[in-house]
Amino acid sequence: MSTKNPRLSFSRAQGRQPEHKILAIPGPVEVSNNVLEALAQPPLSHVSPDFTRIFQEALSLSRKVVGSQNGQPFVIAGSGTLGWDQVGANLIERGDKVLVLNTGYFGDGFKDCLTSYGAVATILMAPSPGETVPLAAIESTLAGQKYKLITITHVDTSTGVLSDVHDITKVVRRVSPSTLIILDAVCSAGCEDIKMDAWGLDIVLTASQKAIGALPGLSILIASPRAIQTYSSRITPVQGYYASWKKWLPIMEAYVAGKAAYFGTQPVNLVRALTEALKELMKDGEEGLAKRIEAHRKVARRLRAVAAQLGMKSLATQGAEAAGLTAIWVPEGLTASEILQKAGAKGVVFAGGLLADVKDRYIRIGHMGVSVTDEARGDTNRITDVLYSVINELLAEKRMDRATTEI
Amino acid sequence: MSTKNPRLSFSRAQGRQPEHKILAIPGPVEVSNNVLEALAQPPLSHVSPDFTRIFQEALSLSRKVVGSQNGQPFVIAGSGTLGWDQVGANLIERGDKVLVLNTGYFGDGFKDCLTSYGAVATILMAPSPGETVPLAAIESTLAGQKYKLITITHVDTSTGVLSDVHDITKVVRRVSPSTLIILDAVCSAGCEDIKMDAWGLDIVLTASQKAIGALPGLSILIASPRAIQTYSSRITPVQGYYASWKKWLPIMEAYVAGKAAYFGTQPVNLVRALTEALKELMKDGEEGLAKRIEAHRKVARRLRAVAAQLGMKSLATQGAEAAGLTAIWVPEGLTASEILQKAGAKGVVFAGGLLADVKDRYIRIGHMGVSVTDEARGDTNRITDVLYSVINELLAEKRMDRATTEI
């Protein structure tokens, strides 16, 4: 990497890590030195006492990050998508009615997953991209029909739209208290408020590589006692094998109790890095977590202010803007691809659009984890600086082109 | 770790890796410094050109390790078990007849997986633990009934039994040529001969953490054109979601062609380490791979000779002994647990039994990957030395106990 940061050299900013471009995408994100060092330890036996202690801690801390005391944690090798699969395989029986709130691409995906297990899905779409699903629509739909479960994408990674989970849970518990509430928190756990017990969530599923601050490759899911009860009392057998709680529940219960057990070999290095990341996340308890969430919001506000100066509007409407991810429309005349390319050359990696029909019309900037919480790294300044200079340079180039053409 | 190796200090033996116990279990195994360093790089974007090149190389090399030119590789976040799940979800339609060859615990598991997808399984058990399934039994079973697929566990990790895959494929192709041949090569790819194309295998599935020499967390599967054809022409939809080739096939095809694509976030660090491991494995082409396999056999023979001197017999009958794993009965009067504990204290990790009813009657010693191929590490000498001294010390202790009791 030849690009130099005018304020902070890479080696100072990134500590013991080799020089590299800053990942400012909605995951994987930058990880701390401690997390990377935990990852890089020689592998442990998956049934050794050392690993058992580490895994037990990961399970226990996973619960805390989402505000659960007694939820049953599952940490399994797989991408975040495996969390959807666990819901489909273990909670759905063919013909079950489910209500899917859709605020972007990941609502489509969750629906797709559940229907592949025989669910009959009703979709409530946000009125337009960037908006949330109105509470009134949720209420009237729930009132008109009994649903086994409702799914909420906390932050849709394709749009940066934040759903108000607390408000939604209040509606569900009032209008249809037996409906299980499933939260896709892949892009929110660690950077948005989640009070699993207090709000009555039944499933919170997430992944390791976003605001949790570890590396990709782990599906993390917490199930309420009610969700486990629903699984235990199913009439038809669990569908599938790898996602089956019939296999994993005894394993996870064993490790929670500090005992090793075997179904599939745990990804020991990824788990070790996850435990380190969760320890960092929870080192000052709930209060510390709340501060971290606030730090994410602050960075998000600052980034949106810079974007606004550049004439770039958020996809997410006001009040529905995520703390860990900003999706912004590119200025008239520019494309996402040229912005990404120029930013990459300056040492910062942004992401393009994920909504197929406006893919090149917006960019997504991830601001999660150590980039936000470790100010000494200077990542967030660098991200805003690069956005600022890239857009200005590109606009200037276009003006120059136009001027040349006009001459 | 306070234990000192008399011949070779840990730091010299393990190079740049921190001091640690040698993993002599059937996976995870010791990994090379290069693999660990590849793992420990800051994460890349899963859709970046850099990662795309790395992933493309992993896919291409995975094929080569199992002797396939045109097979379709799948590398997906998950444990080795996910390979079974891919077979069940994509190749099984309810009511399909399958023939499962059982040489241990993993035969039971594969059957369990396939029947969970609606397969009707016929099991051919090895006559007793340590033996392989007789070819005559396979032949007569295939002659009497048409099976959609047959599964072979190349090396059963619970028993160390090596099946003669080449001989079995000859029988299948002669007696029932339309039956798909599925090879579970989790404990064999990289340390046993596998000629996917030449032998007419339809699926070879393995995992990253054994003789491949990388870290746990990746399911690696190669499908023949005929297997892909069977999947494409299924009448009922694919079962499940996370294991579905409907989702993953376009993704893998894209990366094979050097283009990024998204279904779930790839575990970028694990993939990077896998690519490094596969490069080491294939650096001298097929000839180099053959030499590595021979090196594993040599170590296995030497270890079995030491075990024989100690009066410890292999579970596997002669000719059915794996190259990367030795399962041996413990001497009369000793238990697996006490052997494991004493070996651990001397800095070497062995594994206990996996067959429930003789769990404490035998131990398993893994000898795969860099421990075998990098002689300068001194791992295999250390493994045999520790086995030798542990058994002798325990036997001496027992004699002393007896003498004391008799006095």
TrEMBL record, chains A, B:
Question: Which Gene Ontology BP terms does the record give?
Answer: glycine biosynthetic process, by transamination of glyoxylate
| Domain Aminotransferase class V, first and last residues per copy | 44-297
One MF term in the entry's GO annotations: L-serine-pyruvate transaminase activity
Q: What class of enzyme is it?
A: transferase
Required cofactors, per record?
A: pyridoxal 5'-phosphate
The UniProt record lists the EC number as 2.6.1.44
Q: Where are its TM segments located?
A: none
The record ties this protein, via Pfam families, to: Aminotran_5
Query: Which residues are modified to N6-(pyridoxal phosphate)lysine?
Result: K210
Coiled coil spans: none
Q: Which UniProt keywords apply?
A: Aminotransferase, Pyridoxal phosphate, Transferase
Protein residues bound to substrate: R364
- Keyword ATP-binding among record annotations: no
User: What Gene Ontology terms describe where this protein resides (cellular component)?
Assistant: peroxisome
Family from the record: Belongs to the class-V pyridoxal-phosphate-dependent aminotransferase family.
Name of the protein in question: alanine--glyoxylate transaminase
